[in-house]
Amino acid sequence: MNNHPSISIDTPAERLVTVDSLYLRLMYDRIQDIYRDTDHLATALDAINTKDDVSQGVLVAVKAALLSNSELAGIVSEMFCEHALPYQAEATSHE
Predict the structure, then answer these.
(1) Cα(1)–Cα(18) distance, rounded to whole angstroms?
(2) pLDDT of residue 11
């Protein structure tokens, strides 16, 4: 267990947690759902045409927020792939 990159020999025991691998997979799937949904919603806003400057500004702001959330979900997803999911595979392979 100590050969995983996120765990060093100096990691205090109180920082280590046990998480069911099914729960980890479910969390990862929900993050992927958020990533896809926010990206699709941002893209859907492109279909709205308005000549009103205020409305156009609102659309741009909402799209920027959605794309920002999509990017954040992508970062969290990468963190899961880098840290949680390989550890899950490693633990499963040792059983």
Answers:
(1) 12
(2) 74
- Please check whether residue 52 is in contact with residue 43, taking contact to mean a CB–CB distance below 8 angstroms: no
Residue 92 CA to its chain's centroid (Å): 23
Q: What is the per-residue pLDDT for 5?
A: 55
The identity of residue 16, as a single letter, is: L
Give, in degrees to the nearest 5, the angle at Cα 89 between 86 and 95: 145
How far apart, in whole angstroms, are the C-alpha atoms of residue 47 and residue 8? 50
pLDDT of residue 2: 44
What is the 8-class DSSP label of residue 80? I
Q: Determine the straight-line distance between the first and last CA of the chain, rounded to whole angstroms.
A: 12
